[in-house]
Write a structure and sequence with these properties.
alpha/beta; binds iron/sulfur cluster; TIM Barrel; 2 domains; globular
C-alpha cells in the first residue's frame, strides 16, 4: 500500500480508502473484507450517520482489535440539526454505533453553501467543535461537498478546516469543485479525500464500444477502473481515494493498483487516452446521476436513480434494451416506480448533490422510455412473474 502524509497533522493515510456506504448484506463477508483490507494496509474508513447500518457494522468489526490501526471518518447530516443539543444527539449516537471514544476525521455531510454553515454557527457549531476537540473526541474536522467551484472556495475560506471530501474523477475534472477546487484546497494545506472515483460505476460498466476499444488498445493493458484510479493517484493534491468496495475481488484489485501507483507518473500518451475517452463519454451521459440515492424516497414512489440509469444507458445499450430494463426495474415491486408518476413537487431536488433538475428530467425519461406500450407491458410482466401477489 502507498501512503500520503496529511500535511496538517502528519498522519500517514493509505491512498486507498474504504468507502462504507454500500456494504454487502452478508455481515460475515463484510468482516472478512474489512480485515483483509486492514491487513493489506488500508487505514482510512469512511462512513456516515445516514448510511444504513454502516456505522454499526464497521464498529462491530473494528472492536475486534482493529480500532487503533485505522482512521475512522464519519459525518453529521446538517439538515437534522435544529438546536444545539442535536449536535451531541447525532455525534454520541455515532460514537456508540462505532464503539469508539473518538472520531479521527469528522465531516459536515454534504455542506451545500455558506448559508447552511452560517445557520449552524448560529446554533453554536463553533463552540461545539471546540468542546469536542478539547475532549479529544474529534481529531480533525472537515466537510464533504458536491457543489460548484466558487461556493467551494468560499467554504474553504470560511473556517479553519482540517480536510475536505470532494467528488472527483476524470469525467468531473472541470465539474463541481473540479481540479481548481482540489488545487485551491491543497494550496491551503488541506488534505483532499476523493469520492466517486468511478462516477457511480459509469466509468466502468456499460461503456460505449468506442471507449472499450480505446482502453483495449492502449499502450499499457489496464482495466477501465485501474485507469480511473491511476488518474486520481497521479495527482499529488489527492490524499485518499475512497472506493465503495463490496467484494473481495474488488478489494484485492484496488489494493494491487494502489500499491503500484506513483504520483506524476502519467505520460502525454496516457493523458491523450483520457482526452479521447472523455470526449466520447461526455456525449453519452444525458443526466449526471451517480446513483447516490440521496433524493430518495420520492413521495410518489418514483425510483429516481433507476430511471436515470436506464435513461443514460440508452445511448450505450440502445433504446430497446434500455426500455426492457426500465420496464422490468420499475415493475418488479408491488408499487410502480416509473418516471411518469412524478408530480413535479421538487422535494427531491434540494437533496441532489449533482443539482439535477429531477422533475424536468423525469418528463424526458417518461417520454423516452414509456410511451403507450409501457402500461400493457408492465401488466404483462407482473402477471407472468406474479409480482402482483
Ligand atoms: S419531483 Fe417528482 S421525482 Fe422528485 S420527489 Fe417530487 S414526485 Fe418524486
Ligand atoms: S438524482 Fe441526484 S440525489 Fe438522486 S441518485 Fe441521482 S445524483 Fe443522487
Amino acid at each position: 500500500m502507498k501512503y500520503r502524509i496529511n500535511p496538517k497533522n502528519q498522519d500517514e493515510l493509505s491512498t486507498l480508502g474504504f468507502g462504507c456506504m454500500r456494504f454487502s448484506r452478508d455481515e460475515k463477508e463484510v468482516e472478512k473484507q474489512i480485515i483483509y483490507a486492514i491487513e493489506h494496509g488500508v487505514n482510512y474508513f469512511d462512513t456516515a450517520y445516514i448510511y444504513p447500518n454502516s456505522e454499526v457494522v464497521l464498529g462491530r468489526v473494528l472492536s475486534k482489535g482493529y480500532r487503533e490501526r485505522v482512521k475512522i471518518a464519519t459525518k453529521m447530516p446538517p439538515h437534522t440539526i435544529k438546536k444545539y443539543e442535536d449536535f451531541d444527539r447525532i455525534f454520541l449516537t455515532e460514537l456508540e454505533r462505532l464503539q469508539t471514544d473518538y472520531i479521527d476525521y469528522y465531516l459536515i455531510h454534504m455542506l451545500p453553501d455558506t448559508t447552511v454553515w452560517n445557520r449552524l454557527i448560529k446554533l453554536g457549531i463553533h463552540e461545539w467543535i471546540e468542546e469536542k476537540k478539547e475532549k479529544g473526541q474529534i481529531r480533525n474536522i472537515g466537510f464533504s461537498y458536491h457543489g460548484g467551484r466558487d461556493e467551494f472556495f468560499r467554504l474553504v475560506d470560511i473556517y479553519p478546516w482540517e480536510f475536505c471530501l470532494l467528488q472527483y474523477n476524470y469525467l468531473d475534472e472541470n465539474k463541481q469543485a473540479g481540479i481548481e477546487g482540489i488545487r485551491y484546497a491543497s494550496s491551503k494545506g488541506l488534505p483532499v479525500m476523493v469520492m466517486e472515483p468511478l462516477r457511480g460505476g459509469k466509468l466502468v460498466t456499460n461503456l460505449p464500444k468506442e471507449v472499450k476499444s480505446i482502453w483495449d488498445n492502449a499502450h499499457v493493458k489496464r482495466s477501465p477502473a485501474e485507469w480511473a484510479f491511476k488518474w486520481l493517484w497521479n495527482q499529488p493534491e489527492v490524499t485518499v481515494v475512497l472506493s465503495g468496495m463490496n467484494s473481495m475481488e474488488m478489494i484485492k484489485e484496488n489494493i494491487r493498483v494502489a500499491s503500484e501507483t506513483e504520483v506524476n507518473a502519467f505520460t502525454d500518451e496516457d493523458f491523450n487516452l483520457f482526452k479521447r475517452v472523455k470526449e466520447i463519454l461526455d456525449q453519452t451521459i444525458k443526466v449526471p446521476c451517480t446513483g447516490c440515492n440521496y433524493c430518495m424516497p420520492c413521495p410518489m414512489g418514483v425510483d429516481i436513480p433507476t430511471c436515470f440509469s436506464c435513461y443514460n444507458d440508452m445511448e450505450i445499450e440502445g433504446k430497446l434494451a434500455s426500455k426492457g430494463k426500465y420496464i422490468m426495474q420499475t415493475s418488479i415491486k408491488n408499487q410502480p416506480r416509473n418516471a411518469s408518476l412524478c408530480v413535479k413537487c421538487k422535494k427531491c431536488e434540494s437533496h441532489c448533490p449533482q443539482h439535477i433538475k429531477i422533475s424536468e428530467e423525469m418528463t424526458q425519461v417518461a417520454k423516452s422510455l414509456e410511451g403507450v406500450t409501457y402500461k400493457p407491458l408492465r401488466f404483462l410482466i407482473k402477471k407472468v412473474m406474479r409480482f402482483d401477489k
